[in-house]
Amino acid sequence: MNTFKPFKMASYSQNWPTNTATVMHSSNPEPFSWHELEALTQLDLKQILSDCPMAYESTQGSPHLREQLISAYLPTLKTNDLALTSGAQEGIFLVINSLIEAGDEVLTFTPCFEPLVSVAQEAGADVKLLELDQNNHWSIPWQSLENAINDKTKMLIINFPHNPTGSCITPIELERLISLCEKQGIWIFSDEVFRGLEHRNQSRLQSVAELYSKSVSMGVMSKSMALPGIRLGWLATQDLKLMQRCLEIKSHLSICQSSLDAHITTHILPFTNLILKRNLSIIESNKEIVKQMLVNHSEFRCSLPHGSATAFIELTNHPAEDFCIKLLKEEHIFVMPGPAFLTDHSGFRLTLGKHQAEPIYQTIFKSDY
Ligand SMILES: Cc1ncc(COP(=O)(O)O)c(C=O)c1O
Q1: Atom 13 (ligand 1): residue with closest C-alpha?
Q2: Closest of 329, 322, 314 to residue 365, by C-alpha
Q3: Distance from residue 11's CA to the centre of ligand 1 (Å)
Q4: Is CATH 1.20.1560.10 correct for 53-270?
Q5: Domain spanning 8-36+273-364: which superfamily?
Q6: Which residues face 301 on adjacent strands?
Q7: Distance 206 CA to ligand 1 centre (A)
Q8: What is the mean pLDDT of the chain?
Q9: What is the pLDDT of residues 170-196, one digit of tens each?
C-alpha cells in the first residue's frame, strides 16, 4: 500500500475554483515565451530543436551538459559528481529515498516547500519542523536547531534563497550549519533552485555540495531560469555511493530526462547571466511596488525577501484560507495560503515574478476585506 498523500498546494488548486483565476503565487519568475527567449538570446530555437536526435539519454545525463552545469554552478566538482533529473521534484524523491530509512530524524525549517517534508515522511522519516524567526527576516532559529539535533538526526534540509519567504543566509551562517552537521555526521540536502535570484546587495552562496562532502545540492531550470517548460534539474554530490543509489532509483522513475530538454538547455546555459538579469529586473521592480503599497497598511505586513521570486505576506486580521478563498471568489485572483507551506502564520505566498502585476497588487491590497 503506497503512502503518497496529495500535496496541500495541489489540493487547493484542484478543490478551489481556480480555473479562470489569475495565478499570483507562482514561485518561478514569469516563464519565457519562445519569442522572448529568442529575442533575448538571438538563438534560433527551431533550428536547435530540429538538430536534436530523439533518442534516450544515459541515466546520469549527457556528459557535455553535466560539464556545462558543473562549470557554471559547482566549478570545484567533477562531471561525474552531477546527475540530471526530470525537474527538481524528481531530485527530491531521489535524494530522500536514497538516504532515509524508517525511524531516521530529519530537520527542516517552516514555512517550506511541502514536498521537502512530505517526501521524507513518506520515506518513513520523523520530520521535525523548526519555525524560521519571522520577527528577524525569517532567519534560522539557532537555539531550536541545536536543541533538535540528536543521535537519530540523519539529515538537515535547507532551501536558501527560500520558498516562500525569500529569506537568505550569509556565508558565515552556512558555515555554521555545515559545522553543526559535520560534528554529528548529518547529511545536508540543499535545495538551491532559487540560487541566482539573490536581490540587489545580497551575495550568492557557494553551492553546499562544494563545501561539505556529506551533502547534496539541487538546481533546476524552472525557477531562477524561468523555464518550467524545460523539465530539467540536477543533483550534485561528492559522495559517489549516494550518486549511484540516486541513479538506481531514477531508473525506476524517468530513467533519463528528455533529450530535447537537455539539448535546448545546452544552448541556453551560456545566456544564464542575461536571463537572471531579466528575471531580477521584474522581481526588484515588483518588490518596490509591494513595499510602497504596504507602508502603514493595517491588514498586511511583509518582511521583504532578499532572494527568490516570492514574498510571504502576513495577514493581521484574517485566517489565511478565508482571505484567499474570498480573493479568489470575488476578484478571481489566486494566492497560496500559509497552510500549504506547513506554517501556522496567517498569510499567503505572493509572486513577485509576474509582468505587469501592479493593478493586480492594487486589487489584492485594497483594504475593504
Ligand atoms: C523550493 C522548491 N524546490 C523544488 C521545487 C520543484 O521544482 P520543479 O517543479 O521544477 O520540479 C520547487 C517548485 O516550486 C520549489 O519551490
Answers
A1: 27
A2: 314
A3: 16
A4: no
A5: Aspartate Aminotransferase, domain 1 (3.90.1150.10)
A6: 314
A7: 20
A8: 96
A9: 999 999 999 999 999 999 999 999 999
